Amino acid sequence: xxxxxxxxxxxxxxxxxxxxxxxxxxxxxxxxxxxxxxxxxxxxxxxxxxxxxxxxxxxxxxxxxxxxxxxxxxxxxxxxxxxxxxxxxxxxxxxxxxxxxxxxxxxxxxxxxxxxxxxxxxxxxxxxxxxxxxxxxxxxxxxxxxxxxxxxxxxxxxxxxxxxxxxxxxxxxxxxxxxxxxxxxxxxxxxxxxxxxxxxxxxxxxxxxxxxxxxxxxxxxxxxxxxxxxxxxxxxxxxxxxxxxxxxxxxxxxxxxxxxxxxxxxxxxxxxxxxxxxxxxxxxxxxxxxxxxxxxxxxxxxxxxxxxxxxxxxxxxxxxxxxxxxxxxxxxxxxxxxxxxxxxxxxxxxxxxxxxxxxxxxxxxxxxxxxxxxxxxxxxxxxxxxxxxxxxxxxxxxxxxxxxxxxxxxxxxxxxxxxxxxxxxxxxxxxxxxxxxxxxxxxxxxxxxxxxxxxxxxxxxxxxxxxxxxxxxxxxxxxxxxxxxxxxxxxxxxxxxxxxxxxxxxxxxxxxxxxxxxxxxxxxxxxxxxxxxxxxxxxxxxxxxxxxxxxxxxxxxxxxxxxxxxxxxxxxxxxxxxxxxxxxxxxxxxxxxxxxxxxxx
Length: 601
Fold this sequence. Notes:
Elements: H1 5-13, H2 17-22, E1 28-30, E2 33-36, E3 48-51, E4 56-59, E5 65-66, H3 68-76, H4 80-90, H5 105-128, H6 134-142, H7 147-152, E6 156-157, H8 163-171, H9 175-180, E7 184-186, E8 192-194, E9 199-205, E10 211-218, E11 230-232, H10 248-251, E12 258-262, H11 265-273, E13 279-281, H12 289-298, E14 301-304, H13 310-323, E15 329-332, H14 343-360, E16 363-364, H15 365-375, H16 382-397, H17 402-416, H18 420-451, H19 461-476, H20 481-487, H21 496-510, H22 519-522, H23 526-537, H24 545-574, H25 578-597
Parallel strand pairs: 12-13, 12-14, 14-15
Antiparallel strand pairs: 1-2, 2-3, 3-4, 4-5, 6-9, 7-8, 9-10, 10-11, 15-16
């Protein structure tokens, strides 16, 4: 059983798809629809379309499509049910209790793992204040973490061997959910051992304040491959590090117009305690695409504040690649390596006021790339200067905003003694070349599509277009439903995707439902849902829906007559019974007459 169509409709109506998608993708209006760069595949020209009228999205590049539930499910990497919950929560809609939605076994297990994690976070946090936890208490004192911070982030301490496992069993949790959480391991002898022992424990919470994982830091600096500095939760049913940001749940309580992203848990915690509350960590060394969309959704400006060492600067470069096409203002924190190795050390040395100034002076991606390029070149050398100009031109040619490009050209002209004319000439040359290339590429792509149709799709394009048109009219004009349902049968359709879609629509018609677009919520197959989204966003240029359907019905009837005529012609040659042959001849004459009257032959 699932949430009722009435509930789904209410949640959808309360979450305009353009508004929701705009939190992740920079959209521009073009005609009736909005367009942007697709978040589900890499592209240079926008092919991702969002229809405010039909509340649907579709990418003409990769083919993905659906409604607002589909979008949230795909972009956040969550299930359909959870996408409904996220959007309901956003719209302050209280969903019915479990009686109205029976969870699958997977959903039930997820719910239990969340409970295991919540209990564990409290268990470790209480353990931190235990007299036996002196090593952890000394460590937090050394890191100058106050009690408010410890409570805000639920920082804790893990004990020895199987303390947590025994506590979880006593609480009534079963081995399946305990092992799935990754908090306990089971060895070859069948003995359960806590994953984290004698470590400072940092719970990881998602945007919805659910405990999804943990980071455990070593307390004695005796690291080895067997005893690393940090042990993090393994990927499991509720946790995938590349889809979450540490500290985002806390940062969202304040002003998130801009967010600073750093490498480690302790950077976030230390900065937050000292007044830098708009800070998160990547749960790894560099951003993933999913984390990039999370940032894009929650802020206008992202400041990359990774460590000053080589690995940190490589992380900056990789993160720039992820973020640069997301329509977000990206800056890079300039923290001299001679002053501090990471943000935590810097703020402890120089204080929050100086660190905030560092954030205010963070440079743009273009300025950062120019700075990195400049480090490896000697501008007194003619060939190096030419190389520098060429690389700068490549950077500037990718900037669409003319004013922004003009400002950078002014800065480069003054800073590096290069004439404006030389820069403009190279940029113009590259932009013209790129535009020509994309035209040729699009042309080639269309030729490839025509010459190489999918092998499994043996239905002609004309038939698919006709079927698509029928579905589009049905969804947009329910008044045609009776006419179509009466005259066009499911078996008349040839394309497998359209057969499934029409079957779902006819089910809704038979239930006397007016809102036929709800079938998007009922289709689970990605390929069929993407195809439906494409049908819904395309404009078929039909002025009169009823006349269009009457013409299509006429064509279907003519095709049926022709098919029957061909069958009779084959049978009549082989038939030996004179009476049957006569009956077939009479039927053939009737068909020929009908076809003639229809003006077909």
